[in-house]
Write a structure and sequence with these properties.
Layout lengths: L8 H10 L22 E3 L5 E3 L7 E6 L5 H16 L5 E8 L4 H11 L5 E4 L3 H6 L6 E6 L4 E6 L5 H12 L5 H8 L13 H15 L3 H14 L4 H13 L3 H14 L4 H11 L3
Parallel strand pairs: 3-4, 4-5
Antiparallel strand pairs: 1-2, 3-6, 6-7
Helix pairs in contact: 2-3, 2-5, 5-6, 7-8, 7-9, 8-9, 9-10, 9-11, 10-11
Length: 280
């Protein structure tokens, strides 16, 4: 083991060559992404002993949790879904719990969460100390060479998605860019930022100005929309209405015709408005 260190260009090269992932939150203080982990054999909750990691697996996933902790239960439930999803793939799963907890407490939370992976008991918190586990719950992922790929402290949102991304990257199913998109998805747009919403807001403003007989400003609102969205039918109608109200029937006809070509449903209303304008 090596002392925890900052990510470097060398760490980036390991990412590209060895399916490792840069750390974000220092969940482990004694190891860093890219370090080769020791593989201790620990007693199992239900008897016998098992190694933490497996050479037969492309992705080794180990979960540190505490029985009487709400976030641990939430994390285990999310991880149970991931575990089922990767059934049949070369993924090795284990959960790790401190020997300070009674077997009954551990069995209760494991049963409630629905995980199927074996539970290893960390005698005297030896593994906790070796890795420098600082947070609960936390998931570690290592590749088939026992290099630490990632560690994921608990998050209430998209926790399984983040773990899934790291596992799939270790399995060579997705690219580094794909994992980056999972870790840092595009922010959700507010309703007024969605496509068409800003244009519709300007049209509604123009319609209000029409009712106030402020035809110049109503036309300006329509033109503002059409500068960026020339195929916006309602904006053509709005501009036609403003022009017709000003007696500019020939210009209004062009706008109504554009609206009708974009959306035939706008045609009948446009014809009536042109009639009122004196156009035939």
């Amino acid at each position: 083991m090596t002392a925890r260190r900052r990510s470097t260009p060398l760490a980036l090269s390991l990412l590209l060559a060895g399916a490792v992932w840069p750390p974000s939150t220092p969940a482990f203080s004694n190891v860093a992404v890219g370090d080769v982990l020791a593989n201790p054999e620990l007693p199992m909750l239900e008897g016998g002993r098992q190694a933490l990691l497996s050479r037969q697996a492309q992705a080794n996933v180990f979960v540190f949790f505490r029985p009487r902790q709400e976030h641990s239960l939430e994390a285990l439930k999310a991880i149970a879904a991931c575990e089922r999803e990767f059934s049949g793939k070369p993924v090795h799963w284990v959960a790790v719990v401190s020997s300070s907890w009674s077997p009954e407490e551990v069995r209760t939370v494991v049963g409630e969460a629905g995980i199927q992976m074996p539970v290893l008991v960390d005698e005297g918190d030896a593994l906790y100390g070796t890795l420098g586990v600082r947070l609960h719950p936390v998931v570690g992922v290592a590749n088939e060479r026992f290099e630490l790929v990632a560690y994921e402290p608990f998050r209430k949102i998209n926790y399984c998605d983040r773990i899934r991304g790291k596992i799939r990257y270790a399995l060579r199913e997705i690219s580094l860019a794909d994992v980056e998109r999972i870790d840092a998805p595009e922010r959700a747009l507010f309703p007024n930022e969605m496509k068409g919403a800003v244009a519709n807001r300007h049209v509604r403003m123009g319609e209000a100005l029409l009712r106030m007989k402020d035809y110049d400003r109503a036309a300006a609102e329509a033109r503002h929309v059409l500068e960026s969205e020339p195929l916006h039918g309602p904006a053509h109608v709005l501009l036609g209405d403003a022009l017709a109200a000003q007696g500019k029937c020939a210009e209004a006809r062009k706008e109504y015709q554009s609206a009708r070509e974009l959306d035939p449903k706008l045609g009948s209303a446009a014809k009536e408005k042109l009639g009122a304008c004196g156009a035939r």
